Amino acid sequence: MEKFTTRQQTLKVEELYRDTRRWKSCFQFNSDEMLFLERLLNSYVFEPNTPNLFERLRDYQDRLKKAVSEKKAVTDRIRKHEGTLGGMLECTDSSCDLEYYRNHEQLKAEVTYFQEDFRQLKSEIFNYAGGILKKKKPID
Question: Can you give the three-state secondary structure of the chain, one letter per residue?
Fold first, then answer.
């Protein structure tokens, strides 16, 4: 079993903290994006005679609500994980470290999955909305 110095442990913890700060920053930006998308989907900027307009907008609204809920759940897990990282400083061997890294990698996978899923939703909304926005009438 490999033993680590306090300095080595500190560097490892700092690396994991950097990841969690980056995730939290991305999720904060996602909150801004979600607010914009919610306002867009609830606005009156779409051509009213678009086939299945209401159904499509309702589907996007429902999926956005689900994404907001999932983001909150993952954000809570990030905060909890970040709070436990200090305990890693007390580890002095690789077996103890392994559990922290395993948890970190599992959370990283959740963050990645959420980001990819939300990116897909944004893409669908933008592609759909871009084609049915009301056109401003030219001023004569």
Answer: CCECCHHHHHHHHHHHHHHHHHHHHHHHHHHHHHHHHHHHHCCCCECCCCCCHHHHHHHHHHHHHHHHHHHHHHHHHHHHHHHHHHHHHHCCEHHHHHHHHHHHHHHHHHHHHHHHHHHHHHHHHHHHHHHHECCCCCCC
